Amino acid sequence: MTASPTDQTQQRLVDRFGRVATDLRVSLTDRCNLRCTYCMPPEGLDWLPGDEVLTDDEVVRLIGVATGRLGVQEVRFTGGEPLVRRGLVSIVARTREVAPDAELSITTNALGLAKMAGSLAEAGLDRVNVSLDSIRPDTFAEITRRDRLADVVAGLEAAADAGLGPIKINAVLLRGVNDDQAAELLGWSLERGYELRFIEQMPLDAQHGWSRDTMVTADETLAALSTAFELTPAEEPRGSAPAELFYVDGGPAKVGIIASVTRPFCGDCDRVRLTADGQVRDCLFARSESDLRTPLRAGASDGDLAARWVTAMAGKRAGHGIDDLGFLQPDRPMSAIGG
Ligand code: SAM
Ligand code: SF4
Known about the structure:
Layout: E1 13-14, E2 20-21, E3 23-27, H1 56-69, E4 74-78, H2 88-98, E5 103-108, H3 113-123, E6 127-131, H4 137-144, H5 149-161, E7 168-172, H6 182-192, E8 195-199, H7 218-226, E9 231-233, E10 244-248, E11 254-258, E12 271-274, E13 279-281, E14 290-291, H8 293-297, H9 302-314, H10 334-337
Parallel strand pairs: 3-4, 3-12, 4-5, 5-6, 6-7, 7-8, 8-11
Antiparallel strand pairs: 1-2, 9-10, 10-11, 12-13, 13-14
Helix pairs in contact: 1-2, 1-9, 2-3, 3-5
The structure holds S-adenosylmethionine (SAM) and iron/sulfur cluster (SF4).
């Protein structure tokens, strides 16, 4: 049952520390056509059964609840790989209808984006974040286990042509694999007008192979970039953005560092996640989830779903706790949560 605008009561997704979630990450599938070594094993994973995955109608309905009743202002589609979700363009178009003022973006590996960028822009998508860890074909293939660099480059170009900017690139550095390529990747991105952000590798891989001793830290990344560029901290307030921004060679070009592990930004977090099977997660590292799919399929009203979502967020923990002695990696890997 969809509520009429007059009986909608505006609530907020606020936790006990006063943080308000306004940025919703929606995973559209846990499947992917790459096999990044820091994300999943070569054989892939046991994908969610089809009947457990939210239908297009269900996804759009829950997004409508979040934007219409719960103060969510940004919706980011992710996965797994969101471009492999059949119906993506229609989901974006329908989201634009139910949330005309929300910022809509997608995080993607860009395989197939060359073909889809135009329709996604027409459907109402505002911008894309593309994941790219190396511009060398051999290193790209080593990390993703697929020889598809050319498709990513074509996808980026198509996204720019379609007006899906500012285009951000996310890169993860791996020791001994691509940590010697940070400056090269930045130079390449700047030449094309893409904003590059380096993300510290997190303990969210399906194989549980992450180790603090081998991850490349933000400080190491900054040191590597500083051999080729002059970096100065950007003056603009960071707010809840995870990236610390630096001007490159005096600006206006910038580079971002997302130091999730060594300089956590949990105190300013404004994110909430919806998995492809309809579970609300208040944090990437949450140890529990709140099921919205079961009540949704049992006929819950929008008001009831909103109330459940508010309750789900209240217990969000202060921080991800990676440094705590008792830290346990979440049961779901990043690809099944929605990065
Ligand atoms: N498949 C899409 C992509 O790669 O952009 C969307 C999902 S992917 C899980 C989202 C982001 O998470 C990517 O930028 C990827 O590099 C990043 N990621 C995956 N595993 C990670 C990990 N263990 N630590 C840090 N970032 C990770
Ligand atoms: Fe796929 Fe993205 Fe994971 Fe790479 S990081 S395997 S592209 S979900």
